[in-house]
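Reviewer 2 asked us to include a model.

Predict the structure of this chain.
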Amino acid sequence: MLSSRSLGGKVALVTGGGSGIGAACVRALAEEGVSVLVVDYDAEAAAAIAAEVGGSAFAADVTDPDACIAMVAAALDALGRLDVAVNNAGVGPAGLIPTADISVDDWRGIRVNAVGPGTTETSLTRDAIASEPEKIVARVPLGRVAVPEDIAPLVVFLASDASAFCTGGWYAVDGGWTAQ
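Predicted model (structure tokens):
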């Protein structure tokens, strides 16, 4: 994918990393030399993916602010630092600190980007897609739904130095659906 010089030695935390898009992101980041803490509410799933890539696992419910604090502490304890956070778990912002209360100094050097995946076949969507496959696929100009491995390369790019001037962006990975 990218030059390993761009990501090698970095440390990432991936929520929802035990399956679907999150697991694909974990695998893709690890392939680029990133040390990954796999976070998932399913401890066994997190442990399995972490073992597959030589990473660490942490079980957490990201809707619990204390669990979020603990997962960051776990990343720091297990891996020494945290360079990349992939907030993939299907939950809205936890709001530990209201955005308006974060000082300008705290924001300096932080790049925040969002990835907007289209309909993606995962364990959470498989039944819905199977119930009306023609109708769902007909809405996508590329003629198919995504698989998690379609989403992960963009996450790897956004985590890399190659995207150093990308911040505040929303990137669609939806087979052309938003362009219609």
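Helices lie at 4-7, 20-31, 43-53, 65-79, 104-107, 126-131, 133-138, 148-159. The beta strands are 11-15, 35-40, 56-59, 84-87, 114-117, 170-173. We have added this to the supplementary material.
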